[in-house]
Amino acid sequence: MKSYQDINKETIDRWVEEGWEWGKSISHEDYIKAKNGEWKVFLTPTVAVPIDWLGDLKRKKILGLASGGGQQMPIFNALGATCSVIDYSSKQIESEYNVAKREGYTIEAIEGDMTKKLPFDGETFDIVFHPVSNCYVEDVQHIFNEAYRVLKKGGIFLAGLNNEINYIVDQNEREIVWKMPFNPLQDEKAKEFMVKEDAGMQFSHDMTEQIGGQLKAGFTLVDIYEDTNGFGRLHELNIKSFIATKSIKK
Fold first, then answer.
1. Could you read off the pLDDT of 123-171 as tens digits, one per residue?
2. What is the rounded CA–CA span in Å between residue 46 and residue 219?
3. How far apart are the first and last CA of the chain?
4. How does pLDDT run across 71-82, given as a tens digit for each residue?
């Protein structure tokens, strides 16, 4: 029987092949623009990460945590950082290597499961960049603990997080239909819905888990912003369904 992690790996590989937005690598033109100081990266669907959240990236060591696909790491490389990325999707890792080859730089790109111990020593990175992805993980506390472990003291953890709203409503985003937490490993109806929608195995996480989880890991939260889905009825009503956080390892 396949683990939920392997189900998600196969699902995301298939999405990438089908043209998934978060599997499309940046163009050569965008890479050159970044080298010239014109760039933006995303933790959530539509709001770009504030430039001052990252600061000067020259000679910084950055880990892209579940951040494969050739979207953010090439930008960080163009800005002078040394990048590593771990992602469980073979296709997303392949994209990282393809962009690096095209642009003539090297990257450490590891096909790995973030629900396991990360294959890095403690206090290795200056920044951990973690776009929305822990909705594919049942236990998010482990992720925050590992991010804290691999960051240097003073290091920055940037995370994109789902709130529970997308998991409460129906497909047309008009009615509240799901009881929280949404967990297809515990609720057969939720599992059947995920399979029918070809959505992998996804999990809701509340702010106690996601903000409280970062604090429990040892982080200090220093900034936050919200974002919408970028489409659909909730977006049209400006209902925020994502949160981005900046936290520090002090």
1. 999 999 999 999 999 999 999 999 999 999 999 999 999 999 999 999 9
2. 25
3. 42
4. 999 999 999 999
**Segments in 27-151 forming alpha helices (H):** 28-35, 51-54, 73-78, 90-103, 140-150
Percent of the chain with pLDDT over 70: 100
CB 69 within 8 A of CB 24: yes
Q: Indicate the pLDDT class of residue 26, thresholds 50, 70 and 90.
A: very high
Which are the contacts of 201, defined by CB distance < 8 A and separation ≥ 6? 4, 7, 8, 136, 184, 185, 191, 194
- Structure pTM? 0.97
Calpha distance 185→203 (Å, rounded): 9
Beta-bridge partner residues of 130:
159
Which helix (H) or strand (E) segment holds residue 7: the answer is helix 4-17
- The number of beta carbons lying within 10 Å of the beta carbon of residue 83 is 27
The dihedral built from the CA positions of residue 69, 225, 145 and 4, taken in this order, carries a sign that is: negative
d(CA 4, CA 28): 35
Secondary structure (3-state) at 29: helix
CB 116 within 8 A of CB 140: no
Q: Considering only CA atoms, which of 83, 85, 81 is closest in space to residue 68?
A: 85
The percentage of the chain sitting over the pLDDT mark of 90, rounded to a whole number, equals 100
